[in-house]
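Reviewers of the previous submission asked for a worked example of the structure-prediction workflow described in the proposal, so we include one complete record here. The input consisted solely of the amino acid sequence. No template or homolog information was supplied to the procedure at any stage.
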Amino acid sequence: MSDTVQAFQGKRAVVTGGTQGIGAAIVKRLTVAGARVVTAARSVPTDQEVLDLFVQADVSTAEGVATLAREALDRLGGVDILINTVGGSSAPSGGVFAVRDEDWQSVFEINLFSAVRLDRALLPSMLAHGSGVIIHVSSIQSRLPLHATIPYAAAKAALTNYSKGLANEVAPRGVRVIAVAPGFIETGAAERLIDRLASSAGTDRAAARRGLMEALGGIPLGRPGHPEEVAELVAFLASDSASYITGVEYTIDGGTVRTV
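From that input alone, the workflow returned the following C-alpha cells.
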C-alpha cells in the first residue's frame, strides 16, 4: 500500500455514504493520508470532526447530487478522487413477485443512478486537469445474486458494467475508473442485521453470523471482512501506485466467489 502519510497529500476527494460503514473507513483512510475529503449523507453525523467538509444531501435524487457536486467544487476547487460508496436496498424480501415497480426504481436510484449522476457532475473537473480516479463500490451480488435481494443485485451488476464502459471512454483523457466488489463486510448495519436474525431465531450472534456466511455459500477465510480492509484496497486503487489500473473490478470477499 502507499505511504500512509504522503499518499494523498494535496488530493481532493469526494466520498458518498461516508459517515458510516465502508464509506466512513474510506474517509478516515484518505484523510489520514493527507487528502481533503468532502462526504455526504442524508443525516448530519454526530462526529463533529467531519462537519466542516460534510454536505447533507440525498444522492439517490438528482437534486441531492446537484447539491453535493456544487458544494464539493465550491469547497475544494476541483476533485481528484471520487468514490461512490452509497448503496443499499429497502425492497421487501419474498422473491421477485414481492417487489413492486417503485421498489425497483428506488433501488436503482441509490445504487446506480447516484453514481451516474455524480460522475457526470464531477467528471468535467477531472477531464479539465487530465487526471482523476473514480471508484464505484459494487458488490459480489453482481455475480452472486441472492433471491432476497434481486433488485440490489441487478443494480450492482449494472453499476459494474457501467464502470467498465465509462473507464473505456475516459481513459484516453487521463481518468481511471475502477469497481470494487465487497462480499460480507461486518459494518454496523451488518451487525444490526445479525442481532435481528439472532433474536428472531432465538440463537446467539455467532450462530446468526454463520447463517449469513452459509447463505453466501460459505467464506473460505472463515470470517466476514472489516470496513478498514475495504478502505485499504480502495486507498491503493486511488493512489498513484495503481496508475496503470483501470476498467476492472476488484473483489474483496474472503474467497466467497469461487470463479475466476
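The domain at 12-185+225-252 is CATH 3.40.50.720 (Rossmann fold). We consider this example representative of the routine output the project will generate in years two and three.
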